What does this fold into?
Amino acid sequence: MKTGDTAWVLISAALVLLMTPGLAFFYGGMTRSKGVLNMIMMSFGAIGLVTVLWVLFGYSAAFGTDLFAGLLGNPLEKFGLNGVLDTGEEAPLVGTIPEIVFVGFQAVFAILTVALISGAIADRAKFGAWMLFAGIWVTLVYFPVAHWVFDFNEDADGNPIGGWIGQGLGAIDFAGGTAVHINAGAAALAVALVLGKRLGFGKDPSHRPHNLPFVMLGAGLLWFGWFGFNAGSALAADATAGYAWINTLVAPAAGILGWLFVEKIRDGHATSLGAASGVVAGLVAITPAAVAITPAWSIVLGALAGAVCALAVGLKYRLGYDDSLDVVGVHLVGGLLGTLFIGFAADPGSPAEGAGLFYGGGLELIGKQALSSLAVMVYSFTIAFVIAWIIDKTMGFRVAEEHEINGIDLSVHAETAYEFGGRVGSAFQPAQGAGRTAADASGQGTGHGQRKVEA
It folds into this structure.
């Protein structure tokens, strides 16, 4: 065990945990004022639920002894973290850190992945239905996919017995382009299709972001935490962590420029919301490629991610699905872009040691990256759709129309985010349109997922 590596991974785990409250602010600022608490609650609900499931059987399902062909670890082998709690000289290790530290680091990845999905169903989902969906989805989808991508276990003889994507196929996904972003983005699309469109989708100006400072704060917290997400995935305080850290700085910086460039050309304005969105797009794209491409290529990838995701968020208007906060346009599209980009620009001199097409590696790595992306996307979408459909047909997934009109915070949680002095019974009366900017009120503002779209 190396104490320096252990300290770095513990700090990184705390940084990644901070990303979920950061996401709550990022998403919360983009909703209406009468739905912001519900949006934040879905992230905090994910923290509570996924943490408990991870300790009970999730870690074991993801990193326990493989049961069949790299598809799933044994969920009972380390139930309740049995076998990983020894802190003495015989403490089990993952690399140079205690396994119990690795448990915590991977737990916060699972939490964030689930929370990401919630942005697709803002303003219209029952909280109880969301919690039920989150628990089933993380069990049936995230835990197995984490095994596919992140498990590199070996048996006593050194034979690989880990996941079929990372260890078996040899695809490169350093910190979760497939397991986190493609996984969450595909599930978000499925749930959005099951729930249907918000009332007034594409027409009601009150759907514009109600608090842009929240969005900017959330993006800043996400970027800060992402250094733990990517650099912490080295599981050591070494040059590989430094390599990932630099790329995590560079790609989102270029993502800002790429997104703002598209906004300026398309809409005539470079917005604060666009800058925040460009940060996240660049972070999503660099996640799988953080130690596979050079910082120069990270600039290219980040700029592409910012531009492509800025264009992709408008697809929901053309295709007719209501992904409220553009989880599909940013996380699914950005995750696919970053994962596939590795097949072209992976540098054999980088820590990942993969050779992309531009470095004479041919089409082999592109094929591996494409197969891993497609497998996760199809599996996550299919299972998420089935789970959401069953919940919708039994207990109902969507709130009643009058609750959506009056505000989901008040109807579901008996609270409102902002106190303006009025009361109805024991609950505050929400102010209609509170928090909207002057630009929004005039119909000229542009919001994330609410930008002007050409007819």
